[in-house]
Amino acid sequence: MDFPVFHLDFLGNRYLIAGIAILHVLINHGLAVGMMPLIAAMEWYGHKKQDPRWDKLAYKILFVCFLITTTVGALTGVGIWFSVSLVNPYSIASLIRVFFWAWFTEWLVFVTEVCLILAYTLTWKKWTAQGPESKKRHIRLGFALAFASWVTMAIIVAILGFMMDPGNWLTVNSFWTGVMNPLYIPQLAFRTPLAATMAGIIAMFLILFFTKKQDQFRNDALRAVGLWTLAFAPFVLVAGWWYYTSVPDAMKDNLGVSLGTLEFVDWQTKFLQIAVITVVTILLVVQFAISRPKLLPKVALVVPFVAILWMTGHFERVREFIRKPYVIGQYMYANGLRVEDYALLQRDGVLTYATYSNPLTEAEKAELPNGLSEPERTARLEAIQKGKDVFMNTCTRCHTGHGVNSITGHLQRMFGDQPWTPELTAGYIESMHYAQPYMPPFPGNKAELQLLGTYLQHLQQNKAPIPGAQSVGVIVSGAAAARSPEMTNQTEAAVQ
Amino acid sequence: MNAIPVPRDIPLPMPAPEPILIGVLVIFFLMHIVFVNFMVGGALLTFWYQLRGLKEKRFDDLAYEIASTITANKSIAVVLGVGPLLAINTIYTVYFYTANALTGAFWISIIPLVITAFVLTYVHKYLWHQMERMKWLHIGLAAVVSLLFLFIPLIFLTNINLMLFPEKWGTVQGFFSALMLPNVFARYAHFVLACPAMTGLFLVWLFRRKDDAEIAATGFERTELIRKGYQWAFWPTAAQFVIGPIALLTLPETQEPIHSVIAVFGVAILVSLGMAHLMFTETRRPAETIGKSFVPICVMMLVVVGLMGTGRHLYREAAVTPHRELVRAKTADYMRKVDEANRQAATAAEGSAEGVSQ
């Protein structure tokens, strides 16, 4: 509506965010939040036992983490901002207005974290050589880094929790009511042991690279890190249970009860299964690593790691799952339109208030019905243009035309090869949110439903990719009246 | 149609008084850009000295010294960029996000490009000695890193420039057409010249504080190294006296007068003249006195950087203020309509409920 529409018609906009965010979460949890305390503990243990092998191993693991967290880790964090501001600028801009100071504080902690990881890594050898006092200082630096890493996660989780369930924020419009949303503490309690367990598995994997098979130290290191992993794994289950028993309360306001409950039971059952499989796998592999370290192949550690990724992925899905059809619970729908705006938009139409139009490319203009006269063709294209604008403004935040999660794919499944006439599709879209509680209601007026239907009918024949503003730019709406969805006689004829 | 778009803003209050947000934006952005200067300048100087190192080994050692500084500087540059990004998102939501979307493919490609540049920087630094036998490949890495570091700021600059001109939003088609808007290349040249200049000063600081053994390991005298730092600081700064005014003169016209902008940049030019004079004097000083003016030079540079940031902000405000008033009015009007439509819908719902109950 108010921003040019960035759109990826093959990949889908959500997958851009998801790809970047998942990579970031894995690195953040596995190599920063969970790993830094483990490395500091290793360094402390090596110093206590006066065993330099621990020190060397801890440094090697830290160096791997340093390389990855300061490149892919840091940049995917920024990438989440970039991608969200492209895909759904309305939601991120609203969240920033509410959470500016939380993000600002998180940023200050993040600056501290980066300075600490630089200092911790780059002073390791020098301070170790300077004697025990410097070494103790260095170990303290490691624990300070571990704490800073955890605090950054703790702040971000507040914002993630808010997106799912703003709690009292809608009525008491303040920062702290947003932060103390009901899913915050359970989510943080789940992520903390999850990060520690992930770090344990990754560290065990790295130990196999950094120690020799016949070296007794490999066994000692595997046993110690195995115990670390075993200590945290049960808490993943306990906190996971707490988290998802908190979910229904948060969810019930968003979804229609019957279908929502069925979906939730499905998610819950799967989560339980995956969590149990993951924890059992971890227990088995770690037990094996402790009791038969010499026989442990590297690939064996990949199994629990993949299981953890699977569980984390399923866990992250719940955020999508709970918040739909909203992007900010009860406040803003996934299409970026505020709940409060609906009365106006459904009365006057979305296009009346759209700042931009999304130009049709030549390829998109192809495949019109044969035998149209020039005026009919013009009118038809005008209707398709308006229908496309409705589509771009109300559907594309989640759907593509022909790519991943495409609208044509859904229509094909529902209506097959029969002609997707405006009557057919518009009739469905008008009431789809009753049948599909994950879908927001259609925000436009009746005329726009027909225009969208005409566009979808065109998409049945025209398979050209739908470009975003990043490649074809935008057309600025002149006067609102010129773009009013009140149909001209010609457009009306074309829609019929 | 080349109409000027007037979008609506996000209908939520600002999280803090505007001067505080502007302070966050300008101060932290300047801190960010200084470290970006060190990072880009460090990469360029490393590449240059590696090439010279092909003939004289000690230049290769000097290149290694400079390359070693990029690791920390680049991480600080990135992390310091997040705060101003947050502030610009908040203050200039409509302007910034619009520019981002219109150049979206290149804008999002910043992420993989920076990751690639950083990974290659690590490979270049940490495999320096292992790649002795593949020197050209190693230098090729430095060249690729330099090119990436030079290109990424151009994407940022194009965005920051595009956001100031709503009248161009309807005509731009992707990154390259936004790149062709007035002032982009002049500002870019201004930025690129600042990189070796700031890195030169950074090297003076570095070589003044290193101990004698570390200096001896480079194969240069301390005085030589400090002088090189000053030379890198001076010559690009001298070139700024040509490029800077071009950047100023090519600024597109704004509806609001920009006398204050010109005054601020005028003062910056005067302070720069004094600073450049001191830099040049330092390059000619003997070993006993070289570095004497380092602190005054740094203070003057700080003043110049502060004035540049202030001038840029004043220009940005002059460029967008009239349009922002239109945006505010349109947002307020829209919210009035939303309230009215909701009242109407509520009345209609009550009416139909009464109808049902009767």
Summarize the structure.
Chain A: Residues 382-460 form the Cytochrome c domain. With 496 residues, chain A is mostly helical.
Provide an overview of this structure:
The complex is a heterodimer of chains A (496) and B (358). Chain A is an all-alpha fold. Chain A has 19 helices and four strands. In chain A, the strands form two sheets. A two-stranded antiparallel ribbon of chain A has the order 1-2. A two-stranded antiparallel ribbon of chain A has the order 3-4. In chain A, helix 1 (13-33) packs antiparallel against helix 3, helix 9 (216-252) runs antiparallel to helix 10 and helix 16 packs across helix 17 (446-461). By secondary structure, chain B is mostly helical. Chain B has one domain (18-336). Chain B is 81% helix and 0% strand. Chain B has twelve helices and no strands. Chain B has helices at residues 18-53, 57-91, 93-102, 104-126, 135-162, 166-169, 175-179, 184-209, 212-218, 222-249, 259-283, 294-357. In chain B, helix 4 (104-126) runs antiparallel to helix 5, helix 8 runs antiparallel to helix 10 and helix 10 packs antiparallel against helix 11. In chain B, 41% of the residues are buried. At the A-B interface, helix 3, helix 4, helix 12, helix 18 and strand 4 of A face helix 2, helix 3, helix 4 and helix 12 of B.
What descriptive keywords fit this protein?
heterodimer, A: 496 residues, mainly alpha, two-stranded antiparallel ribbon, 19 helices, 4 strands, B: 358 residues
| Main sheet attributes: strand count, strand direction, barrel closure of chain A | 2 strands, antiparallel
Beta-strand level of the residues of chain A, as a percent range?
A: under 5%
Number of domains of chain A: 2
User: Spans of chain B with pLDDT under 50 lasting ≥5 residues?
Assistant: none
Taken from the alpha-carbon principal axes, the silhouette of chain B is: elongated
Lateral arrangement of strands in the main beta sheet of chain A: 1-2
